[in-house]
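## Example record

The block below lists the input lines for one assembly entry, exactly as stored, with component labels intact.
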Amino acid sequence: MSYRVIDVAGDIGLRAEGRTLQECFVNAGLGLYSLITDLNQIKQKQQIEIEIAEESIEILLVSYLNELIFKFDAYGFIGNAIDLTIERNTLKALVYGETFDPKKHERRLLIKAATYHNLIIKQENTHWIAEIIFDI
Amino acid sequence: MGDSMNGNGGNWEGKAFEDMLFDYLDNGYLESIITFFKHEPEQIFLIPKMLADERLRVKVGAFAIIEEIKEKNPESLNKIIPEITKLLNSVEKNIRGDAAYALEIIGSLEAKPALIEALQKEEDPQVKEFIEDAIRSLK
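Predicted structure tokens for the full assembly:
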């Protein structure tokens, strides 16, 4: 598990890492889902596709996480596995999961949005690191 | 135009006044109507009626007025969110789509539950897209 919650006054943040940019994005997405519920309780009954093109990798990260939040808000979709590619700032992802059911799934935080506040995405030695703060 | 409006006796109420205002919008006096709303902000309650109007210029005028108010006094737009969300249930798909777009411009989280409910019921793919865009925009 290459993500962890970071302490931010009033809001919640995540630090995700990966050996590649793709892995870092996958871990950021899974980290986001782990803020919403327990990933172990999710069954992979459905899959959704996401495709996003943005001008920079920072915008791409925020848009991608906000799209996951949107799919949860609008359709109740929650995932626990993500296949993802990034080429020329275009992200294509397949997310595996199911519709959130409060009777089956633990309800953790209500995440409103991924933000640009203190956003970090950088390569350090052989790793990619992302830090992102969410509005809750 | 200001003189004509004053001809209403300074009483900015009633169906005749609404008709006159909407006719002005339909006739292209958008700037004058925007100025009117700056001076008469309590008339903001007319905006949902404009969105439900069948005339394109009146609807477009409503969007422009919302954008203008959002720049100057965004909190005041919260007052009309309940009336606009009612339009998401209109039998006219154009009105449902326009209501979603108006809520996207307003950008208040207050509209989110109504938009999500509308999305679950909506069958028209184009209106669905408008509603999805509105939900995405709410922060």
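Chain A has a mean pLDDT of 94. The domain at 3-135 of chain A is CATH 3.55.10.10 (Archease, Possible Chaperone; Chain: A; domain 1).
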